[in-house]
Amino acid sequence: MEADGIAEGFSKSIEMHGLKFNKLIGDGDSSVVKRLNEILPYGPRFMIEKIECRNHLLRNYISKLKMLATKTEYPVTIRKFIVTNILRFRSDVTKAITYQKNILDKSKNQKIADLKYDLKNAPYHRFGQHQECNSYFCKGSKIGEINMVPEALRCGILLEIDKITSRLVNNSSSLIEDLDNNICEQFNSIINKYVGGKRINFSQSNNYSTRVKAAIISFNSRTYLRTIHKKIMNFSPGKIGKKFIKNTDRIRLNTVNRRILNNNQKRYRKKMVSARSKGPDSHYGLAEPLMDTIDEDELQEKKNTFIQYLHTVDTKQIEIDTRDQNLNPNWFQERKIRLTASRFGEICKMRPNTSCKTKVHSILYKPPVTSKQMTYGHNMEHEARQKLKEIIKLDVQLCGLVIDTIFPYLAASPDGLVGDQAIVEIKCPYTAKDSENSIDAVNNKLLSYCYITQENTLKLKNDHQYYYQVMGQLHITRRNVCYFVVYTKKWISVEHIYYDKTFWEEKMVKKLNLFYTECILPEIVDPLYGKRLLISDIREPTYIKEKINK
User: Fold this and answer.
1) How many helices (DSSP H) and strands (DSSP E) are in the chain?
2) Strand blocks (E) in 345-446
3) Containing H/E element for 310?
4) What is the mean pLDDT of residues 459-475?
5) CA dihedral 248, 252, 257, 263 (to 10 degrees)
6) Cα(445)–Cα(376) distance, rounded to whole angstroms?
7) What's the pTM?
8) Distance (Å, rounded) from C-alpha 174 to C-alpha 319?
9) Strands 416-418 and 458-460
10) Between residues 252 and 364, the one the model is more confident about
11) Cys bridge to 79: 37, 69, 208, 543, which one at CB 3.0-4.6 A?
């Protein structure tokens, strides 16, 4: 219901307010963003950025620290220290956010990077180790302060705290905005009061909508009874009514003062568990074929217009503007309307009789996937790039989204550029992070995409999706060689992979062009999925239908 309400608000924002909303402040629930990605209220080229609510992130952080402090396998002194200083753990985060946000002579990306550093270091600072603290963060050790970091590391509790802190670090781009959705939470609580907390059925005879309107008046005026009485009767309430309103104001003021004085008081709130909408049931009426579609000639005209638009964009400027890649909303927006190299392998290896509907839905509508493996790889990437610089004795430049000059709907984001003829692609496999060397990693089946040559060197399999990715990156960037890096803390492998023009022309380019123009592009210019949220509504091109029917 929450996702449906917000989606409707976005869909009608132009009609009601003449505005397009490009940001959404929300909690950790991904269903709202998922729904917005499905309906695309402003079209496929308009990106809506999700900003995580600061209060929800901090509440989650403190809750997990409190839960960690209850685990008896860790020393009681450290657990008591956490409980005693729980608000200081929180203030370390909020002070870092406030400082970085208010700096005027830094770019936003630099602020985010510095905030990440402060958040990672915050638990160490709180446990008494200040070697890595910046001067603005603290003034060094206090008299009599004990460094508890060695003991916390030895027992393993600090590693658990690092994992808890990682969620804050990963959401630094949201925390730097320092925003919350408190006003929505407050309004929702007033609605719940007027509808009796959903304990009574008020869904008939406009009863529910009337009560919501009453909640709106109460929220905006803070004096619901007086406002309604004066509007209807043209005079203020009498003695009894005024006494009641005065008493209500007194209770509200006392509640506010009590919360200020007792900010450590625990407040438990029961969470309502609601079933998430998964769209129409395919076994009922909405499984009928979608009739509201345009004809082939109009669809082809829209496709041609969109391709012409892609030819007009400034590809060089896009590459410059997106060099911070997943920290930049423009990077996601430009990738969303193109087919990128990370997808080339799965597209080229599709069977001719495989439906494209699920793949198109995954590319256009599914939110970015995150996991501990992906987070680990992303965090290790900078370290791997620095190690590569030491090995090849050359500078590695950051790279944004590179768009193909001939086919502007194909794009790639290498992990780096070396000179004028080389690119860098880095893999930091989580599964092999504890292996002693590359040979052990392959023999223990921890690197499925590589094999060991007779010279005991690591080599990428040329039938793996990563090989298709590298070939696509080399072709789009018009470069000849890729430094394919596999990096862990204990070892590194650097393979030179050269551009194979025959491989590109015979196994890749035709399939990629066909898939984009016949599968992805129709859904971009005339979306069908968002009308009923059925994957089956997505168009199946003729060439796939013929293969399926054989």
Assistant:
1) 27, 11
2) 402-403, 410-412, 416-418, 422-427
3) helix 296-312
4) 96
5) 140
6) 19
7) 0.65
8) 23
9) unpaired
10) 364
11) 69
> Nearest Cα to 439, choosing from 430, 426, 452?
452
Q: What is the pLDDT of residues 42-86, one digit of tens each?
A: 877 787 888 899 999 999 999 999 999 999 999 999 999 999 999
- The structural domains of the chain, with segments of one domain joined by +, span 1-52, 54-175, 296-369+507-549, 372-500
Burial class (CB in 10 A: 0-12, 13-18, 19+), 2: middle
Amino acid symbol at 375: T
Structure tokens at 435: 């292996």
**What does the DSSP 8-state code read for residue 541?**
-
Say which amino acid occupies 408. P
- DSSP class of residue 391? H
How do 410-412 and 416-418 pair as beta strands? unpaired
Q: Side-chain half-sphere of 297: how many Cα atoms within 13 Å? A: 0
326-367 confidence digits (pLDDT tens): 777 788 888 989 999 999 999 999 999 999 999 999 998 887
Looking at residue 136, its pLDDT comes to: 82
- Mean pLDDT, residues 190-196: 80
Is the separation of the CB atoms in 96 and 122 below 8 Å?
A: yes
* Cβ proximity of 439 and 450 under 8 Å: no
Tokens in use for 28?
Answer: 């950790």
DSSP string, 85-125: THHHHHHHHHHHHHHHHH-SSS-HHHHHHHHHHHHHHHHHH
Task: Give dist(CA 54, CA 74) in Å, integer.
Answer: 29
Given a contact cutoff of 8 angstroms between Cβ atoms, the answer to whether 94 and 66 are in contact is no
Average pLDDT, the chain: 86
Radius of gyration of the chain (CA): 28
Question: Going by DSSP bridges, is the β-strand pair 422-427/481-487 parallel, antiparallel, or unpaired?
Answer: parallel
E strand intervals along 285-394: 339-340
CATH architecture assigned to 372-500: Alpha-Beta Complex (3.90)
As to burial, measured by CB atoms within 10 angstroms (0-12 exposed, 13-18 middle, 19+ buried), residue 444 is: exposed
CA distance linking residue 37 with residue 270, whole number of Å: 30
State phi, psi for 323 to the nearest 5 degrees.
Answer: -70, -20
Structure tokens at 547: 């293969």
Residue with tokens 């004085």: 261
Question: What length is written for the chain?
Answer: 550
Both tokens of 357, joined, read 């509907």
Q: Which residues contact 38 (CB under 8 A, 6 or more apart)?
A: 365, 529, 530, 533
Closest to 452 (Cα-Cα) out of 493, 490, 482:
493
Q: Kind and range of the H or E element at 458?
A: strand 458-460
Q: In this prediction, what percent of the chain has a pLDDT beyond 70?
A: 92
Distance CA 134, CA 157 (A): 24
List % helix, strand, coil for the chain (3-state, nearest 5). 55, 10, 35
Percent of the chain with pLDDT over 90: 51
